[in-house]
Amino acid sequence: MNRYYELFRKNFPYIVRNEEEALRIINNPENHFIDVEDDNGSLIAASIIHKNTILMLCVNLDYQNRGIGSKLLEESEKYILEKGYDEVSVGVGDNYLMPGIPMATKPFEEQLKEAEIYKEVNNNAYDFFLKRGYFHAWTDANCFDMRADLTTVKFPNPSIGDVIDGVTYRFATLADLSKIIACTDDAHKEFSQYYMNEDLYLPSSDQKVLIATIGDDVCGTLMISIETEAKGLGSVGCTAVAHRYRGKHIAVNMVVLGTKYLQSLGLKKGYLGYTYSGLDKMYGYAGYKICLYYCMGHKKLKEK
After folding, report:
1. Which architecture, in CATH terms, is 163-267?
2. 211 strand-pairing partners
3. DSSP string of 56-115?
4. Where along the chain do its domains lie?
5. Tell me: the pLDDT tens digits for 256-276?
6. Is the pLDDT of residue 1 over 80?
7. N-term to C-term CA, the chain
8. What is the CATH number of domain 3-98?
9. Most buried by CB count within 10 Å: which residue of 60, 85, 99, 115?
10. pTM of the shown model
């Protein structure tokens, strides 16, 4: 197995990331790697850099508090400066292994739905970067992951295929694609690229598209993923509702129905990644709770 992926999994076991996708990101030929090995040649710490983004910087627990992390960050920033960039981000760039710096408390103070933070998560990494000039780049929101225990959450009677307040909720077929894109273009144009994947509409796909329709219009869309990240784990996301149909609880209904469908398949856990302020309430109706916060780390670099 790729040793950087092993280091990632060892240091961030709570990050939900499909192995194939994580390896694709790690193995990007444009990445730059700064390694630290022990006397036996085993990788004990590393920084993975893509352009001006630090995708991962970590030190195995037994080697922490020895200055290794500080040296890695110093060398990473130097490399990024030498490449002509004057700022650095931690987590999200062109792609990401995780959205930002994992932490147990929210970096932006606001009222959110209740949380059940993973026990192994703390603020050590956040404190490390904060002391070295990094800050949460989102000035008015938090970023977080959410999860739901599908063995205990109870859902109302309506299911996929039913009509709720004049809106029909059903699985999409390829024939719906043009209307789906019209909906997502109106709601969140950046989502359209994901819905254009025709494989989503195959009966054998482990991802499905749930749509809300009124007459001939597709007024809402939701993507449902079935064990694409891990066995027993399902996810809903890319929720979109066309502007003229908002205020009818369509998004909430899609999330509830989609999560209920995951439960009906016998899945134990529901999961949402890279979520942000405001969506905690919508997903909260389906039993999702915040399980991990991220500092969207950013720093302006200066020549010394």
Report:
1. 3-Layer(aba) Sandwich (3.40)
2. 170, 221
3. EEEE-GGG-SSSHHHHHHHHHHHHHHHTT-SEEEES-SSS-SSSSEEESS-SS------B
4. 3-98, 163-267
5. 999 999 999 999 999 999 999
6. no
7. 39
8. 3.40.630.30
9. 99
10. 0.91
